[in-house]
TrEMBL record:
This is M20/M25/M40 family metallo-hydrolase. InterPro entries: Peptidase_M20, Peptidase_M20A, Uncharacterised_RocB. GO terms for molecular function: hydrolase activity. Pfam families: Peptidase_M20. Keywords: Hydrolase. It comes from Halobacillus trueperi.
Length: 541
């Protein structure tokens, strides 16, 4: 008996998943994994083979799920990757109480169509879209993967499917990083050969109103560079006796935000420009002393360029900001200081990478003392990765403050390697199969895009497309080796070809997030079924 095959059945399943408000790091993020385990362990296949359905704990108490459906003694295995977590719902405003109830939210929006942007209103009135947090990103993809798993239980495919459902994709991808050793263990225990990983992230529009349908043969890379601006404090009554860190970080923002120099072009694809994801000073109490330090972090995406190339662009932005900061200071001082008045403070700004600052501190105090200070911070840590990265940099800057003002470039997690299987014949054949089948069966035109721009967990399992060594990044990452390590060996041991063929939706991470139902739950499952058949056929040579 099949229960996850029709559009209506899949819509019901999606709603049951969305009703778990599995915001990253919430208890419901644990609960939804348990719910998946519950609905799968009741299936006859897993009643007979309970060892093929497993929960795997993360170090922080969360868990991920793996569900293997094995075809007799077959080795060839396709990995289906989904994440269960979603972003918060503060943006829903008065609709917050309905954000996790798609049918009820959609019905309520029908009564208040005027609240919606025009495109969202048009979709709503078509009657074929379901609104709600997680409907698009990415519980619809998980829903379709469960329908494929059900087909595998019925013996549909001539190979094995392994579903991997993970938490934490929206923040640090700790779920996927924890899945890597689990995948290696399952591979060895069950004697499997991983042929490819299929993700079900939704299509992302290239521009507002984009009508095209996409599949992806890779996933874009993401770095999170930060700039610590360490100024010179002064009293508000003596404004030209120092340099305000808030002034420094504001000029950096002008140089970084949407800067076209960071747009990378590969073929017909382009990376979105940088955006600030966090900017604040590090003064936590009120006084009339100017903030000594401020920090900003930027979302910087890449495809093939190296970390060294990114560093050069970032340091150039800092140099331009430096010139403007100093010019601003002198220009404003000229209005305030009169006659023979001069300021004893003459601003200059030292620009450093984290690695250079660390070496400077070691040269002054010795490696043992610097490591002692950092180990002490690690032992007292009560901050998230980004705040703790900032603390580590600020600590070094404070003991080298005689070279301030300074701007220090560093990196913080998360980091997503750019990956691509665009030139892999196996993936090329799968993409062609999807395109041909969608056109012939449904009259839909699918377009291949090399890099999925929404970020995905494929970054930790696919072939990297940049020539950078990971050490180029980690030596500028203060948290690396201070309570955070990349599982480099495991990542390299289970690298496999990748493809992303997902549902149709709009407005991820917005309160108008929504899923189109006909393509997503009628056509997409058939397209994926056809692709999986072709993958196993090709795999047999």
């Amino acid at each position: 008996m099949t229960v996850w095959q029709t559009k209506e059945q899949l819509t019901d399943l999606l709603c049951s998943l969305v009703e778990y408000p599995s915001i990253t790091n919430s208890n419901e993020e644990i609960a939804i994994i348990e719910y998946l385990y519950y609905i799968l362990e009741d299936r006859d296949y897993y009643k007979k083979r309970p060892g093929h359905l497993n929960l795997h704990p993360l170090d922080d108490g969360r868990q991920l799920l793996t569900a293997l459906v094995k075809k007799d003694e077959a080795k060839e295995t396709l990995v289906l990757i989904s994440h269960v977590d979603v972003v918060g719902i503060e943006d829903y405003g008065s609709y917050q109480n309905l954000a996790f109830y798609p049918r009820e939210l959609t019905q309520e929006l029908h009564k208040n169509v005027e609240d919606l942007p025009k495109e969202a209103a048009r979709d709503l009135e078509s009657g074929n879209w379901l609104f709600g947090r997680g409907t698009m990103d990415m519980k619809a993809g998980l829903t379709v993967h469960l329908s494929l798993l059900e087909k595998a239980m019925a013996g549909e495919f001539d190979g094995n499917l392994l579903l991997v459902a993970v938490p934490d994709e929206e923040v640090n991808s700790e779920g996927m990083l924890a899945a890597l050793p689990a995948l290696a263990e399952i591979r060895d225990k069950e004697d499997l050969e991983y042929k490819a990983a299929l993700n079900g992230e939704p299509m992302f529009s290239k521009y507002p109103g984009d009508p095209a349908y996409y599949l992806y043969t890779g996933s874009i890379g993401k770095t999170l560079p930060g700039f610590l601006c360490y100024g010179k404090e002064t009293h508000a009554g003596e404004p030209f006796g120092g340099l305000n860190a808030n002034l420094m970080v504001s000029y950096l923002a002008q140089e970084m935000e949407l800067n076209e120099a960071f747009i990378e072009k590969v073929g017909g694809e382009r990376t979105p420009p940088p955006l600030s994801l966090m900017q604040r000073d590090l003064k936590f109490e009120y006084s009339v002393q100017t903030p000594q330090a401020a920090v900003a972090m930027y979302n910087v995406l890449y495809m093939k360029q190296s970390i060294t190339e990114l560093n050069e662009k970032l340091l150039q932005a800092a140099q331009r900001a430096k010139a403007k900061i100093i010019n601003h200071y002198h220009h404003q001082a000229s209005f305030y200081l009169e006659g023979t008045q001069t300021s004893a403070f003459h601003p200059d700004i030292t620009i450093l990478t984290y690695d250079q600052l660390y070496k400077e501190a070691v040269a002054r105090y010795g490696k043992m003392e610097v490591d002692r200070r950092q180990n002490r911070l690690v032992n007292l840590r009560d901050q998230g990765d980004r705040d703790f990265s900032t603390t580590l940099v600020q600590s070094l800057a404070s003991i080298c403050k005689d070279i301030s003002p300074m701007i220090v470039l560093f990196y913080s997690p998360p980091f997503y390697p750019a990956v691509s299987s665009n030139d892999d014949p196996f993936i090329q054949n799968g993409a062609k199969t999807a395109i041909d089948y969608a056109r012939e069966k449904f009259g839909e035109e699918l377009e291949v895009v090399e890099y999925f721009t929404g970020l995905s967990d494929l970054s930790f399992i696919g072939p990297t497309s940049s020539t950078s060594s990971l050490s180029d990044l980690t030596k500028q990452m203060p948290i690396h080796g201070n309570g955070f390590e990349w599982p480099t060996e495991v990542m390299e041991s289970i690298t496999m070809p990748i493809i992303n063929i997902g549902p149709l939706g709009r407005d991820p991470h917005q309160w108008t997030e929504r899923l189109e139902l006909s393509y997503s739950f009628e056509k997409l499952p058939q397209i994926l079924t056809r692709v999986i058949h072709e993958f196993f056929k090709t795999g047999r040579g």
